[in-house]
Amino acid sequence: MVMSMSTLLRNKPKPKEEEVENIFQGNLCRCTGYRPILEGFKTFSKDEPCCMGSKCCKNQTRNEEHVLDVAEPCDFVPVDTTQEPIFPPELKISNGFGTKFLTFKSERVTWLRPVFLKDLLELKSKYPNARIVIGNTAVGLDTKYRKAHAQVMIAATHVPELHEVAVSDTGIHIGGAVTLARFGEILTEAIENTTEYKYKVLVAMRGIVTGIAGHQIRNVASLAGNILWAHHHSDLVPLLMATGSTITLISKGVAREMLV
């Protein structure tokens, strides 16, 4: 839980109270309990930091007789960013890592990562039984329940076209590699700028997205993966069907659009 909070503060130094609560989704605590942990971490929030209000211990000080007096709110020691842990420079890879076609092979699996859409389609044509993955969060479940072992995996994480997002009056276009976490943010932005008749659909969609697994999983799991997993845990499918959403399917030399 400390690592989850550290990650949130790295990205948002002054998070909202709701964001503090959401970051702990998927974390289990069976000893201390969630309430004291959440109340402790909410002191980092820009919202009301304590349920005690003006009686919060931060608003009190001790006089010479060691009696607590109400005082002006005291601040925490300012964050010294020079003391923040950094990623070990020795482990950093050259800047070209994200722009190169990568191949890794083992005795059981070949892992391929293209960076162009044409290469992705070529690989899928060459290896028709290959599994296209983004976060590959379902690998454990597939192995345990479906006894599935992919011999070739194609990582579509670095194909720019699959990360495209376009919002228009007719709907939202989401690339297949867009993560569920990012999708939730897109829905939040759309809700704040939408008309009333679209509002309920977007709110319902966001409620489902933010309820899938934990925050760490949503950071890597993709919208396309949730749909194509074809499992009863793919909670987005019924709502996508009800709203008349479409999917664009592309293979080598062919593109077609169909209803979910």
UniProtKB/TrEMBL annotation:
Keyword Transcription regulation belongs to the record: no
Domain (FAD-binding PCMH-type): residue spans on this chain: 104-260
Keyword set, alphabetical order: FAD, Flavoprotein
Gene Ontology terms, MF aspect: FAD binding; iron ion binding; oxidoreductase activity
Protein name, UniProt field: Xanthine dehydrogenase/oxidase-like isoform X1
Keyword Transferase: no
Pfam families, sorted: FAD_binding_5, Fer2_2
Organism: Lingula anatina (Brachiopod)
